[in-house]
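forwarding from the other thread:

> can someone predict this with adenosine-5'-triphosphate?

sure thing
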Amino acid sequence: MPVISFVSPKGGVGKTTSAVLLGGVLADKGAPVTMIDADPNQPVSSWAKLPGRPENLRVIRDVTQDTVIDVIEEEAQRSTFVICDLEGTASLTVSYAVSRSDLVLIPLQGSHLDAAQAARAVKLVRSTEKAIGRSVPFALFFNRVSTAIQPRTFRHIRDEFEAAGLPVLACTLQEREAFRAIFSFGGTVGGLTSAQASNLPAALANVSDFARAVTNRLRPAAATNPEA
Ligand SMILES: Nc1ncnc2c1ncn2[C@@H]1O[C@H](COP(=O)(O)OP(=O)(O)OP(=O)(O)O)[C@@H](O)[C@H]1O
Ligand SMILES: [Mg+2]
């Protein structure tokens, strides 16, 4: 079943946040999900120790350069979605995970500094493609987008990527308190209470739209043909 990896050599762009948001919403919709925590800092495992993790969401920890390929292949047999959270550097672990991915998602925030790092992530995907002799689908997406305004820099960067022929998800992830709160209280956005974070219906709508945009990328035919 599909393997989705979150990749960027830049630290703090939202790989772990978006990986856990995606895994959580897919699990809440009933799909068996495996999250592979291939970051030595183990952020997904720390989240999983908090209360509220869906029962159908497994977390595999202590995954290293030596084990990542075997773990991904094994989990792809077992779960409907396999989601890999990777460290914020370019490493062999990251390349190996990319080599076994059906979709690589590259988060970036709306600044040109981030855009340069996202371009490095694209290069890493391209060099892995060369090494393994097959293409690896990927898409960039904007994280921490303001809900109030769409800044000009953000629009400019998005236009530049599109002009360069790089795929950008139409759906962005917004800057939301709820997306931080799951790492304090545990569980998924759907399990938060209004005492734990504000604007929960809007946060939930955003992660659901994000999950739909991602799964549509996995099945391009189904996205264009609703009957498929
Ligand atoms: N959409 C968002 N809304 C609110 N806060 C966010 C959002 N995305 C990320 N953050 C915050 O930004 C910080 C960095 O996010 P995160 O840890 O997910 O990045 P990362 O790319 O996984 O970092 P690293 O490279 O260190 O693994 C965290 O404090 C997180 O709570
Ligand atoms: Mg991380």
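The radius of gyration is 17 Å. thats all i got for now
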